[in-house]
Amino acid sequence: MFHSVIQSISQWFLSRPRGIKRVITLSVDFIAVVVALWLAFSLRYSELYIPVQKQYWVFLLAPAIAIPIFIKFGLYRAIVRYIGLYALGTVFKAVALYTLLFAVIMLIAGPENTGVVPRTVYGINTLILLLFAGGSRLIARWWFSELHIGQQLDRTISRSIPPVVIYGAGASGVQMAVALKLGHQQKPVAFIDDERQLQKRQINGVGVYPFSELSYLIEKFAVRDVLLAMPSASRSRRNEIIQSLEHYPVHVRTLPDLNDIAEGKVTVSDIQEVDIADLLGREEVAPIGNLLHANITGKVVIVTGAGGSIGSELCRQIIQLQPKTLVLFELNEYGLYTIEKELKHYHHDIP
Question: Which residues belong to CATH 3.40.50.720 in the chain?
């Protein structure tokens, strides 16, 4: 019962226009400013504080100063689900400026108009308001992005989202995982990383494992895709990783080159097929068309290791030259099934 009520409230909030959401957030901050000031007095005097009559306007002045500052700093332009450290830094600056202006006005007004306001109240008030303003945004982000919306999405569409393992738990890998979660095209279930300090840890709710546990992950999550998120790795290192993945029944894809990302040509979320050039370890040599046609067209051709990255690419190139029959040999049943299905889809006329 309680869970359904909370779920209804969350869905109602998310379905409101952005202007309504801002008004709600602003109202929460208004209350937070008043409560933070009252708690600061209460903690200072070690009892529930009851303001004297001349202090009533002080508790109204506090939000009158804070809210315009919060608006000026853009706290109500940020989307709660995507709030990060930069937004929290902005909250800190806004609260600090509010405290400074509030203290100056209190000093100018004098105790005869404001009652006694101990200096420690300003410091306590700052800490409490930081906790309220920053903490409430973090809780809202966690609630809508991870707990509530994440659980709802998992229940409704998890069956249609294929699981994926990301090789590389660095900045690029984490950014890729976030992009995949937001896009709902693939579900990151694990990171693979060779850095021991990262292993057995959680990054945004996704565990980090050593390469030796890949078989376990494939079996546990029914993984069919591995995304290589190491755009800054050398070609030899990428080649080594891709070759090691050849022995597993997975489809390997990779991030674009780091230079292309830096130049803005592509983004981290632009996942690419593994370039066959990554596996060569040398410069590519252009094929000689006449020789290929003479040895393939109208003939029976067999490809061993047809389910791997190199073998599957060979199959794609060979079948375009119209062999009489293309025979695929592969020990990995899933790899064989995948490439056979792909070739039959585009070239069903070739046995």
Answer: 162-279
